[in-house]
Amino acid sequence: MANEELDTAALISICQRGIVPVSQWLNRDTPDAQRQLAYAGALLQAGCGWRFARDMRGDVRTVWIRITHPTFSTFEESDPGEDELFYLPSEKRLAESAGSDWY
C-alpha cells in the first residue's frame, strides 16, 4: 500500500504494530521514536485531524504526517491548537523489521 493510500485506521494500526518490546530496541533514538509513535497513535485514536506532510520528503520506509490537536491554550485562550509533525514506519518498514526495532 502506498503511503498516500493510508487512512486513519491504517495509521492507527501502524502506530500499534510499531511498538516493540524494549528488548528489541537497537538504536539510541528508539526510545524517542517509540514515544512519538505512541503519542501519534493516541491523537489519531482521539479523532484529531491529520494530513500528509507534503513538505517532508517521504519514502517507502517513512510516513510523515501532521496532526492538529488542541493544547492548553485552546481551552484557555481560544488558540486553534498545534500542528505537530510525526514520522511513522511504513508498512514495508514494519514488514522488514519482523517485529523488531523498525527505527
Q: What's the SSE pattern?
A: HHEEHEH
Give the strand order, joined by hyphens, for the main sheet: 1-2-3
- Amount of beta strand: 15-25%
Class from secondary-structure proportions: alpha+beta
Helix content: 25-40%
Largest sheet: 3 strands, antiparallel
Residue windows where pLDDT falls under 50 for at least 5 positions: none
Round the Cα radius of gyration to an integer and report it.
14 Å
Shape: globular
Number of domains: 1
Q: Report mean pLDDT, rounded to a whole number.
A: 89
Q: Tally the helices: what do you get?
A: 4
Q: How many β strands by DSSP?
A: 3
Oligomeric state, counting identical vs distinct chains: single chain
Distance between the termini: 20 Å
Question: How do the helices and strands line up, and which of them pair or pack?
Answer:
Elements: H1 8-17, H2 30-45, E1 49-52, E2 62-69, H3 72-77, E3 82-89, H4 91-97
Helix pairs in contact: 1-2
Could you explain how this protein is built, in words?
By secondary structure, this protein is an alpha+beta fold. The chain has one domain (3-97). The protein contains four helices and three strands. It has helices at residues 8-17, 30-45, 72-77, 91-97, and strands at residues 49-52, 62-69, 82-89. The longest helix is centred in the middle third of the chain and has 16 residues, at 30-45. The radius of gyration is 14 Å and the shape is globular.
